[in-house]
Amino acid sequence: MKALTWQGKRQVSVEDVPDPILEEPTDAIVEVTSTAICGSDLHLYEVLGPFMDKGDIIGHEPMGRVVEAGPDSGLSVGQRIVVPFPIACGACWMCERGLVTQCETTQVRKYGSGAALFGYSRLYGSVPGAQAEYLRVPHADFGAITVGDDLDDHRYLFLSDVIPTAWQGVVYADVKEGDTLAVYGLGPIGQMAARIGAHRGANVFAIDPVPERRAMAERHGIATFDYSKEINDEIRDLTEGRGPDAVVDAVGMESHGSPVGWAAHQAVGALPDVVGRKMMEKAGVDRLAALYGAIDLVRRGGTISLSGVYGGEMDPMPMLTMFDKQIQLRMGQANVHSWIDELLPLVEDPDDPLGTEDLVTHRVPLVEAPAMYEKFQKKEDGCIKVVLDPRS
């Protein structure tokens, strides 16, 4: 089969790789009909290279049809499913409490990580990813989300990651109807977090330096702001001088405006893999401009919710400010399955309240993936969300 493989820093290529096979009774094999490039895939492309191996298959946002079903998978050939990015058993202590990203069956204990993830480096199990023609789905009896046949892929595809991640981010922000919510970053997660905040009755302010991203958010009634040194003061002026009740940081470790973190990323990326892994495990530093901005902006007693991915072990945090402002901080990979019962009716609603019809800016054949990674990273051609079609 064809699959997108990691070959080195900023180097990915579509290669011929062996077809996946059933390995456990609960496995399924899926023919992938749509698979998206996630903002966190860019961390593999740029920052997390020391944890990647040449030939690793990338990707964790797929859907498709079952072509082989293990006897205990609970699935049948021909069923249409969405595959969430965490791999979880559904039966352990953590899964029973809805914390599927901490699944005790698939935890990657070697690196002190939570549940295994599709296509996401040694840190999360080196499981072959989903930017491919076919995908083996471990624990498909729990993991697979069965969907109907009537709607297009893009109405369901984002249940794999984007929508549950954004939903959890807003839930963790604890915004209520009438509250104010700021969203840092208007990539796919930020777009959805802003829309979900508005859907739940919040007054939403969104911050991003890219005009096309701001324009997309504005189509959904979101007040947007260009990123600048004065932006927090502008938003405070709109919230009686206090700042918003909550902030969602949908940017993460590769924030703009963080020259020290950027230099650290480049230095680690230039080291041999074994040395680079040790440096990141013990002394990793993220680019923290968005998080620092959120800490400054949120009102006293407010909440910051981190949806953007961070990975540093030595990130300097302004603890005096955080303690003095009595800030609540929540974060973590999305426990996708915990939110599906609430989200499935929304994506199937004919009125499309979350705007799934208006998120994809590029749908291209799998063979064009390397060019789209570069375009997505550089934010060229209005690129906000890329969906790959392995069957084209």
UniProtKB/TrEMBL annotation:
InterPro entries: ADH-like_C (IPR013149), ADH-like_N (IPR013154), ADH_Zn_CS (IPR002328), GroES-like_sf (IPR011032), NAD(P)-bd_dom_sf (IPR036291). Residues 25-141 form the Alcohol dehydrogenase-like N-terminal domain. Pfam families: ADH_N, ADH_zinc_N. PROSITE patterns: ADH_ZINC. Keywords: Metal-binding, Oxidoreductase, Zinc. Its cofactor is Zn(2+). Residues 188-253 form the Alcohol dehydrogenase-like C-terminal domain. GO terms for molecular function: oxidoreductase activity; zinc ion binding. PANTHER family: DEHYDROGENASE, ZINC-CONTAINING, PUTATIVE (AFU_ORTHOLOGUE AFUA_2G02810)-RELATED (PTHR42813:SF2), ZINC-TYPE ALCOHOL DEHYDROGENASE-LIKE (PTHR42813). Belongs to the zinc-containing alcohol dehydrogenase family. This is Glutathione-dependent formaldehyde dehydrogenase. It comes from Flaviflexus salsibiostraticola.
